[in-house]
Design brief:
Oligomer: heterodimer
Helix content of chain B: 10-25%
Distance between the termini of chain B: 46 Å
Order of helices and strands of chain A: HEEEHEEEEEHHEH
Number of helices of chain B: 11
Structural class of chain A: alpha+beta
Strand order of the largest sheet of chain A: 1-2-3-9-8-5
Radius of gyration of chain B: 21 Å
Largest sheet of chain A: 6 strands, antiparallel
Number of strands of chain B: 20
Radius of gyration of chain A: 15 Å
Shape of chain B: globular
Chain lengths: 155, 406
């Protein structure tokens, strides 16, 4: 618990220093929805595609490994379903929606760098069958997310 | 404990800063303004340095190049690091050698003037207080550099013993070089680049050697050493000349030597199999367990006379219970605190540093395992987020070192 506490305090503090270097504008995609933990989701009816944002991959740096869930696994909004490893850091990937994993991007096993090179397309991570479409309403749109990133960077 | 994406870029600070957890935790309440800045701070920011808190200092974790690019460029061309957060000091006086020998495991008396070595400051139990590169400048002058995160405790430790030593009539005093900055120039272009800036013939200066010479018009302490496994130098320069020296180095290399931050420095030292104090070496780890028995001079093994000598000499005789080893692993990169198991799934130790090697393009790590399971080729399992992955014990360094030796 102590380390958890320490980590969260460190994080809120470190955010100030880590992000005050403005790396320019990361791209966002208009029709996607975004979570505060920097994942995007593309919703089409009950089907959702999930990945991490350009802003996220930019801060992580060279992605060297993506830990994928099994097809059929249950995911919960705001909870971790996998992890992305860069040279610099390990980060959880949280699901922006609840549901069941119906497909994972197997290409990431051999080419994890797709997450850097094409975060919104070839670097997608999982596809989910959404259990509660209302959850999507709690996510940010592209405009809100851009603002959110800007504030985080210049905090 | 690892973060979500919202903690991006911070893990390394945590990883590198473990030595100083309490300090950092305390500083978390403080503001940016409390962080110390090196003489190169504005230069870093102007060059795109991404500044992070590290051991109480605001230091660049990387610049515009990615950590992967910076790591590879250091080995192909060269890197310039600001390491002014580290603490350089001199011990002077006719008894400085016997004084230091009470605190470290090195055969300081046996060093030729102008040469140095990696050594370990030990405590009464034989554990490591810090690792440090020491140089015998002359018989009555020792120059050393200690870790930023250990500065306060190291200086307090040295001071306490110095008081007692002087009270018994010993002649030793110190000077802490807060008026100087430390730059590390590493990689194959380090020597040719630096040669443009000094008249001293660097081809005659070998790994571990030390000179006080004029570089780019100012009096510098030059040590042929580093923390990357490459040939290179650490240059102690008067702080008012530090920015000019950094600019001159970059310019003379025609842009091939690149500014490099703490992120790549960590990858480079890991590839070179070098310990990070606070991760791979701590208060309860002895130099023997850490695989640094080579740094304990022959005479010191015979005579002892340093803190914790009984424990350390017994471990040399009987063998330590645990040993630091190198690891290759599959799956995600193993990070510090990942459990290491034998093939039957029984706990045999813990990873202390790990990551993806930019040069080898695979996962490397180091950690401690029970003696007997430390031999290269031993199959192990590494537990990462509840899943086990195949790994094996391997020799270090992972990337061959290129120290300049005669």
């Amino acid at each position: 618990m102590a380390s958890r506490l320490w980590a969260s305090k460190a994080a809120s503090y470190l955010k100030i220093s880590t992000f005050n270097f403005n790396r320019g504008f990361a791209s966002v995609v208009k029709d996607l929805k975004y979570a505060e933990s920097h994942e995007w989701v593309k919703v089409d009816g009950k089907s959702a595609t999930v990945g991490i944002t350009d802003h996220a991959q930019d801060h992580l740096g060279d992605v060297v490994y993506v830990e994928l869930p099994e097809v059929g696994a249950a995911v919960t909004q705001g909870s971790s379903f996998g992890a992305v490893e860069s040279v610099k850091a390990t980060s959880d990937i949280n699901s922006p929606v609840s549901g069941k994993v119906v497909e994972v991007n197997e290409e990431l096993s051999s080419s994890p760098g797709l997450v850097n090179g094409s975060p919104y397309e070839n670097g997608w991570i999982i596809k989910v069958e959404i259990s509660d479409t209302n959850e999507v309403n709690s996510l940010m749109d592209s405009e809100q997310y851009s603002k959110f990133c800007e504030e985080e960077d210049n905090h | 404990m690892r973060g979500g994406l919202w903690q991006l870029g911070q893990s390394i600070t945590r990883r590198l800063g473990q030595a100083d957890k309490k300090t950092i935790a305390r500083r978390c309440y403080a503001s940016d303004a409390d962080l110390k800045k090196t003489a190169l701070y504005d230069f870093h920011v102007a060059n795109g340095g991404k500044m992070v808190p590290f051991a109480g200092w605001s230091m660049p974790i990387q610049y515009k190049d990615s950590i992967m690019e910076s790591t590879i460029n250091c080995r192909e061309n060269g890197s310039l690091f600001d390491v002014a957060h580290m603490c350089g000091l001199s011990l002077k006086g006719k008894d400085c050698v016997p004084f230091l020998e009470k605190l470290v495991v090195a055969d300081v008396a046996g060093l030729a003037p102008g040469t140095g070595s990696l050594t370990v400051f030990t405590n009464e139990k034989g554990g490591a207080i810090d690792d440090s590169v020491i140089t015998k400048v002359t018989d009555d002058h020792i120059y050393l550099v200690v870790n930023a995160g250990c500065r306060d405790k190291d200086l307090a430790h040295i001071e306490e013993h110095m008081k007692a030593f002087k009270a018994k009539g010993g002649d030793v005093s110190w000077h802490i070089y807060d008026e100087r900055s430390l730059l590390a120039l590493q990689g194959p272009l380090a020597a040719p680049t630096l040669q443009h800036l000094t008249k001293e013939d660097l081809s005659k200066m070998y790994f571990g050697e030390f000179r006080i010479i004029d570089i780019n018009g100012s009096k510098c302490f030059l040590t042929r050493t580093g923390y990357t496994g490459e040939d290179g130098f650490e240059i102690s320069v008067p702080s008012e000349n530090a920015v000019d020296l950094a600019k001159a180095i970059l310019e003379k290399s025609e842009g091939k030597v690149r500014l490099t931050g703490l992120g790549a420095r960590d990858s480079l030292r890991l590839e070179a199999g070098l310990c990070l104090y606070g991760n791979d070496m701590e208060q309860h780890i002895t130099p023997v367990e850490a695989g640094l028995t080579w740094a304990i001079g022959k005479r010191r093994r015979a005579e002892g006379g340093f803190l914790g000598a009984e424990v350390i000499l017994k471990q040399i005789a009987d063998g330590p219970a645990i040993r630091r080893v190198g690891l290759f692993s599959t799956g995600p990169p193993a990070r510090s605190h990942s459990e290491i198991q034998n093939e039957n799934g029984e706990n045999i130790g813990e990873v202390t540093s790990g990551g993806f090697s930019p040069c080898l393009k695979k996962n490397i790590g180091m950690g401690y395992v029970k003696s007997g399971l430390h031999k290269p080729g031993t199959k192990v399992k590494i537990v990462i987020r509840g899943k086990t992955y195949e790994g094996s014990v391997t020799k270090m360094p992972f990337v061959p070192t290129k120290y300049y030796k005669p």
